[in-house]
Amino acid sequence: MIHIVGHGIAGAMLAWELDRRGISFRVYDPGSTPTGSKVGAGIINPVTGQRWVKSWRVDTLFRGAESTYREIERVTGSRLYTSLRVRRYFQSPAEERTAREKVAAGQLRPYITEAGVDSCWISPAARVDTGALVDVLGQRWQARGWWRAEEAPSSWPSDDVVIRCIGAAECALPELGTKRLSLAKGEILTVRAEHVDTSTIVNAGNWVLPIDTARARVGATYARDQLSLECTPAAREHLLSFARKYLGDSTEVVSQEVGLRASTSDRLPVVGWLCERRRLGIVNGLGSKGALFAPCLAQQWAEHLTSGRAFDPELDVRRFLP
Ligand SMILES: Cc1cc2nc3c(=O)[nH]c(=O)nc-3n(C[C@H](O)[C@H](O)[C@H](O)COP(=O)(O)OP(=O)(O)OC[C@H]3O[C@@H](n4cnc5c(N)ncnc54)[C@H](O)[C@@H]3O)c2cc1C
Fold first, then answer.
1. 219 lines ligand 1 (CB under 6 A)
2. Per-residue pLDDT at 102 exceeds 80
3. Pairing between strand 147-148 and 25-28?
4. 23-59 residue pLDDT tens
5. Ligand 1 centre distance from Cα of residue 287 (Å)
6. How far apart are CA 121 and CA 115, in angstroms?
7. CB of 9 closer than 6 A to ligand 1?
8. Given pLDDT bands bounded at 50, 70 and 90, which one contains residue 177?
9. Is 289 near ligand 1, meaning CB less than 6 Å away?
């Protein structure tokens, strides 16, 4: 039996890939704390960072992720994936110079083809409704009796495989802990505004992500030094004033949420055996790119379990184990 511990986007996609191959499993998730996948915005932006770099293997990962999410939409009859574009504004003269040089050299193709006066258009980009995806797939496993709304037990039959996909909670456990995983708190607003352009994500340090013509999400803060799961007035003020700049002065806050992101020191996620003898595996460290990475990591596990295919060495958790 395969046990999936944690049903955020990492666990949900793993469950999906196993199910596609006809493999049954159990999922454990108490669903009691705010999780990255419920709070996060699910943006897939292929060009990120102050140095304007394409995400790791983005061409392949983006294509694969879109086709997986579209398949889940077809099978479940849910709307989960929206194709969008990003208007990214230059934040400093140095950043503008970097972007212009890279665009001129064709390094950001096919996502950016030219630089404008104050910004670049990045296309395609996307939004995955990770909260809805986790709910829709969770209901599917519940209907089959494969769901346990509880924390995973502490011991298992020796032949069973346990794959831990518990996001930030992994930091409290010994194998990787805080030496290999670090956390960053993120706060995010949902706002109401008079007119929201539903085709475009505005990115200017923070971002505005359209939900519909009258609502958007605005985020996200990034704080490594405070990890409490409390919403702060400072984040609310900062994000609201950012939102008003792009959506107008009448923009109002509907809600504020908070979550934690777990990342590794090389900024790539981890997949594979934490301890093969104990049949204990992991998917974690998705950082701010859970929507892009989760489908590929799930496929690696599914192919490993069905045909023994080795994990990608750049992602294999063994790079962090003694
Ligand atoms: C504010 C914010 C904005 C973000 N924006 C984006 C974005 O735009 N794009 C993007 O791609 N990513 C974004 N992210 C990051 C993204 O949300 C994460 O990469 C992703 O959610 C990680 O998924 P996960 O499944 O590893 O962890 P989680 O989503 O945290 O899920 C872990 C699950 O494990 C469960 N669990 C914990 N302990 C146990 C236990 N002992 N037993 C059983 N279950 C357990 C939890 O209940 C939870 O459901 C954002 C994150 C935040 C906080």
1. yes
2. yes
3. parallel
4. 999 999 998 777 899 999 999 999 999 999 999 999 9
5. 9
6. 8
7. yes
8. confident
9. yes
